[in-house]
Design brief:
Elements (H helix, E strand, L loop, with lengths): L5 H9 L9 E3 L14 E4 L8 E6 L3 E7 L5 E8 L5 E7 L8 E6 L4 E8 L2 E7 L6 E7 L8 E6 L5 E5 L5 E4 L16 E7 L8 E6 L15 E5 L5 E3 L12 E7 L8 E6 L5 E6 L3 E4 L12 E7 L8 E6 L3 E5 L5 E3 L12 E5 L8 E5 L14 E5 L5 E8 L11 E6 L2 E6 L8 E2 L4 E6 L3 E8 L5 E8 L2 E6 L3 E2 L5 E3 L12 E5 L4 E4 L7 E4 L3 E8 L5 E8 L9 E4 L10 E5 L6 E2 L8 E4 L3 E3 L1 E5 L2 E4 L3 E3 L9 E2 L2 E3 L6 E5 L4 E3 L9 E2 L2 E3 L7 E12 L2 E4 L8 E3 L7 E5 L3 E10 L3 E9 L5 E9 L2 E11 L2 E8 L7 E3 L9 E3 L3 E6 L10 E2 L2 E6 L2 E15 L14 E3 L6 E5 L6 E7 L5 E8 L4 E5 L6 E9 L2 E9 L1
Parallel strand pairs: 2-32, 29-36, 53-72
Antiparallel strand pairs: 1-28, 2-3, 3-4, 4-5, 6-7, 7-8, 8-9, 10-11, 11-12, 12-13, 14-15, 15-16, 16-17, 18-19, 19-20, 20-21, 22-23, 23-24, 24-25, 26-27, 27-28, 29-33, 30-31, 30-34, 34-35, 36-37, 36-43, 38-39, 39-41, 40-42, 42-43, 44-45, 45-47, 46-49, 48-51, 49-50, 52-54, 54-57, 55-56, 55-58, ...
């Protein structure tokens, strides 16, 4: 079967089947106020109460903190402007170890600003000394391991800045701890993304810098070389990026470290502005190997942020990327990732984000902004809070508090080891490009219900190990002091409220004291309102434990149906429908009561399942299965020894096989000439029927005389697809021979729909694209990267928008903004588009080739048969045996094709056959009789 349609089918099903467990809800209304951020974003526990808060740089200038309350609501406090200029980078941590996190930020030569927060709503703004720089990302870590957190700031146009903190939390410029010089020498500029990480898990903090120097196109220029400053264990740093395989020489914007394969070491993902996303595997903490090819993240775009997070708690890290485009890659745990779109429907690609648990349910949420450019805010696109809807996977959240180390435990590693391998998490303060994410270490566990071993490696060098931990809880570990007592909430019955039904009783395990987020201090509470209920328990050890449970009202338990097979397929080919897990299943039309059914005919299918508050019916799955033709007509043939036979089958789209089932077609077409045969052989023929594939042409037919050969890829054509369609080919005009990369992008999300690189000769050329495009839009049809050297029509060419693409879509404008959007036409003329097609193949017809002598004289066989006259003018007499009543006679021409067959009936031992309707020539007669088969040659005159 041809698969041109299948991609579109899979795209339409992916959101509702394979990844049905992964979804987010826009809960922005829970924020205290509407805010609009630029690049800097933060989700972090600002006051040490165990709840992640929203750190907001409103309008890229004003610091707001929306503190999360135990009941899941937020209370905002305004700390004032960090600067009068937009801030490009920031980092957040408790620099002075007083229990409240502080904020540092900077922008375009406006200095570096230090907001020292001493209590909720109380902060003092200080200005740090040192060279004024064009600041980019910032990161905080204990560089000299003195328990005081230090500050690093990337510089776009020169060497970076470092401030070391003293015991009072004062930050002092340091110019000697790092040697920023390069070999060959440079101005040391191009520093964009950064993070402190113990990448080699040797117990000390290292620094990675993502480098990008705009306008520098030579990859041999060190201003483009990513840098890895490795700590030698005595807090002396040297750049060893090349030695470890991480000296990327692309225009890299961000990098993040995480263990995507649960082998206990930290791998890396990097985003580039001139190349695809890259993935690197850590091999034994000695080197990194580029494993991008085939990983599923080979996408390009204007990237500003990247982050490893296990969003669905299945135990495998996912990757979220934002900027001019938005990508979510579902981690499969084996080094491959699956892109999933539509998780954050906002009408615009996510610009920047931060992650953390903002409703204390153990699932990571996303705080996102929708600005433009780099740090420009858009008041019409406010910040959004996306709460993770969660699933049944287990989890563990670990919060750390240092005593010997810095209070925030920045630089610590937490490992959990079990049947899944070893998962590793780090505490970071400022990463990617102006992002601050939760300091809590979150682990997804899938179906695993216990944690055999948990190990904390503190920045001080102390290592603590804990065993046999329960899941689905948030615990606190205080360095060298205590670990949280076990906290678990048990509902009486199902933890579900139904309209008109009974309340839910929640009970927590025994401990010294209890504090629910409702304010209750009893061991048991009764709830009548839906929501997340959490409790903090204190056994007097100095550490507290917490647990949470979600109690929904009339939960929507509508099942989803996953499909294996083609929803737009061929009749007779089985399609497997599987319901999401439930307590029972009732399929439409009485098709069964099992979780999975198999169907082979067109129709609309649903499944009903029982839920806590009623019965739920799935969305319908519509199978549109196309007819396949009947088996073709074909006759057996006869040929001589060591001769070929010509076979013929009647029908359309004939394919020939040498096996009855499966296999690959050995020939196509109505006629098939066999190889030379020395013995009888059997072949099979099938017919095929193609549905869809209707072709239309659209867009501007030809170029005008008003235009130029374009030297950049900034602009492109905008179109809408009314239906699923395939862009088969386009006409272009090139000023030189060379490769061009052409793509279809989603203008709402920036996602790449289809892309390919094509060798295009000089002059007018038709380029075969074969891009599958789902219904929707607006889309962009564009060139990607470099100087395309393709003709575009300009002012004065007067394009007549819109251009119909048959009935499948419309070319609406160029991407030029303003009134000139319809004054230009870019690159792609006379588009050939088609509806998706599918070819259905019918059953196979057996065709036998029998080997016989080329000439046999007439005479009497073993049964006394005799044929005369030979040659004949049309009438042939055949003498039959005494006991024979009927014989079968087949007549073959010289090509071996059967031209006549008949049953002979004996009339007193004689049968007369009229062959006068056959043309004169040589024929082979095959006589089937009770004793076997007699073959003889006959000449008709």
């Amino acid at each position: 079967m041809r698969k041109q349609y299948v991609l579109l089918c899979l795209m339409s099903l992916s959101a509702s089947s394979a990844w049905a467990q992964l979804s987010f809800t826009n809960a922005s209304a829970r924020k205290s106020a509407i805010t609009a951020s630029g690049g800097c974003m933060g989700v972090v526990d600002m006051n040490g109460d165990g709840l992640d808060d929203l750190a907001i740089l409103h309008n890229s200038r004003v610091l707001h903190v929306d503190y999360q309350n135990p009941d899941g609501s937020f209370t905002m406090h305004d700390y004032g402007s960090m600067s009068n200029a937009a801030q490009w980078g920031w980092a957040i941590a408790d620099i002075d170890n007083d229990g409240h996190k502080d904020v540092v930020s900077g922008g375009n030569y406006d200095g570096t600003h230090y907001m020292r927060i001493s209590g909720i709503g109380t902060g003092v703004l200080n200005q740090l000394t040192g060279p004024s720089i064009y600041q980019q990302a910032m990161s905080i870590g204990d560089i000299n391991n003195d328990r005081a957190l230090d500050v690093f700031a990337c510089n776009d146009v020169g060497p970076n800045n470092v401030w070391l903190a003293d015991v009072n939390g004062d930050l002092n410029l340091n110019t000697t701890h790092f040697n920023w010089a390069t070999n060959p020498s440079s101005d040391m500029s191009g520093n964009y993304g950064s993070c402190f990480t113990d990448f080699d898990s040797d117990g000390d903090l290292d620094l990675y810098i993502a480098k990008c120097r705009q306008g520098v196109n030579n990859s041999s220029d060190p201003r483009r070389w990513n840098r890895l400053f490795v700590n030698d264990g005595s807090n002396a740093f040297a750049d060893q990026a090349a030695a470890y395989g991480l000296e990327i020489r692309n225009q890299t914007w961000t990098a993040d470290f995480g263990d995507y394969d649960n082998d206990g070491d930290l791998d890396m993902v990097a985003t580039n502005h001139d190349a695809t996303i890259q993935l690197f595997e850590n091999v034994d903490n000695t080197t990194f190997v580029d494993v991008t090819a085939g990983c599923g993240m080979e996408y390009t775009g204007f990237f500003l942020q990247s982050k490893f997070v296990d969003f669905d708690n299945d135990g495998f890290l996912d990757v979220l990327i934002a900027g001019g485009v938005e990508y979510f890659f579902k981690g499969n745990g084996d080094g491959t990732f699956t892109p999933i779109s539509g998780l954050f429907p906002a009408g615009r690609a996510m610009h920047s984000f931060a992650t953390g648990d903002l409703n204390n349910d153990g699932f990571t949420d996303v705080f996102a902004n929708y600005g433009t450019g780099y740090v420009t805010t858009d008041a019409n696109q406010p910040d959004r809070l996306w709460l993770n809807d969660g699933n049944d996977n287990h989890w563990l959240t670990v919060r750390l508090q240092g005593t010997i180390s810095n209070r925030d435990a920045v630089g610590a590693q937490v490992r959990i080891t079990g049947p899944w391998g070893t998962q590793v998490r780090e505490v970071k303060a400022g990463e990617s490009y102006g992002m601050v994410t939760t300091f809590a270490c979150s682990f997804g566990l899938g179906e695993h219900s216990t944690i055999p071993t948990l190990t904390v490696r503190w920045p001080s060098g102390l290592e603590e190990t804990f065993e046999d931990l329960n899941v689905d809880q948030a615990i606190t570990i205080v360095e060298n002091t205590c670990i949280s007592p076990v906290a678990s909430i048990s509902p009486v019955g199902a933890p579900v409220l139904c309209t008109g039904g009974a309340p839910v009783v929640l009970s927590v395990n025994e401990a010294g004291s209890f504090l629910w987020n409702t304010g209750a201090t009893t061991q048991e509470i009764t709830v009548e309102q839906p929501g997340v209920y959490s409790v903090v328990i204190d056994d007097g050890s100095g550490c507290t434990g917490s647990a949470s449970i979600n109690v929904p009202l009339d939960p929507d338990e509508t099942p989803t149906v996953s499909v294996i097979g083609d929803v737009h397929g061929c009749e007779g080919n089985p399609v497997e429908l599987t319901s999401s897990e439930a307590d029972g299943y009732t399929w439409s039309d009485g098709l069964g009561a099992t979780r999975t059914i198999e169907v082979t005919t067109s129709g609309t299918y649903t499944v009903s399942v029982p839920g806590a508050c009623g019965t739920f019916i799935s969305a319908p799955v519509v199978l549109d299965l196309f007819a396949a033709p009947d088996a073709p007509l074909a006759d057996d043939v006869m040929t001589g020894v060591n001769s070929s036979a010509e076979l013929y089958a009647e029908g359309d789209g004939i394919q020939w096989y040498d096996v009855a089932v499966g296999g690959t077609a050995i020939a196509t077409g109505n006629t098939f000439v066999t190889p030379e045969l020395s013995s009888d052989a059997t072949y099979w023929a099938s017919a095929s029927m193609t549905h869809g594939g209707d072709v239309a042409y659209g867009g501007r037919p030809n170029k005008s005389n008003s235009g130029v050969y374009q030297t950049n890829t900034d602009y492109y054509q905008v179109f809408t697809a009314y239906e699923d369609m395939v862009i088969r080919s386009v006409k272009v005009y090139a000023n030189s021979t060379g490769e061009r990369t052409i793509a279809v992008i989603d203008r709402n999300t920036g996602a790449t729909i289809a892309m390919g690189t094509f060798e295009i000769p000089t002059g007018e050329q038709r380029v075969e694209l074969n891009f599958s495009v789902p219904a929707g839009g607006p889309y962009g049809l564009r060139c990607v990267g470099g100087s395309p050297g393709l003709w575009r029509d300009g002012l004065g060419s007067n394009p007549a928008y819109p251009y119909a693409l048959g009935t499948l879509g419309s070319m609406t404008s160029s991407s030029v903004t303003g009134a000139n959007a319809t004054a230009y036409y870019y690159f792609f003329y006379d588009l050939e588009v088609a509806s998706p097609s599918i070819t259905c193949e019918g059953s196979r017809t057996e065709v036998n080739v029998n080997i016989g002598p080329t000439t046999i004289a007439d005479g009497v066989g073993t049964q006394g048969h005799r044929l005369w006259p030979n040659p004949s003018h049309g009438t042939v007499n055949i003498a039959m045996g005494e006991d024979e009543v009927a014989l079968e006679l087949d007549v073959f021409d010289v090509s071996g094709r059967q031209v006549y067959t008949t049953s002979l009936k004996s009339d007193h031992g004689l049968a007369v056959v009229d062959l006068s309707h056959l043309a004169a020539g040589d024929y082979t007669l095959a006589l089937q009789h009770t004793g076997g088969r007699r073959v003889t040659r006959l000449v008709l005159q």
